[in-house]
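On to my pick:
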Amino acid sequence: MDYRGILDRATSEASDFINDPARMDQLLLDLEAKLRQIPAIGETVSGLPVMISMVKSWIRKEYQVQPKVLATMVGAFIYLVKKKDLIPDNIPVVGIADDVAIVGLALKFVEPDVKAYKDWQASKR
């Protein structure tokens, strides 16, 4: 499967969401709802809530995020929320495999930025 190509397409679609705060907020709400439905899948998606928080902090203009980092995170969110997956979510166990792969790839790309954000959050406490 061409996960890189999928993430690249979603990343290009991300600008529509990034430039529309209401649409972005709805995407994050949809994403949070979807995450509640996914059984525990370990370390692969453990950074996802931090990514959501990071985007929300960017929306509120509390934290600066490089455009490519922002687009990668939002692109992964879009893929998770959209109904057209490589493997339909209703197929037990393997149905979320493509979702996990996309999130894992996005987290790998933005890992240093997520760590910097977590450090920033810790310094605010």
The helical segments are 3-18, 21-37, 48-59, 67-81, 97-124. The two ends are 42 Å apart (CA to CA).
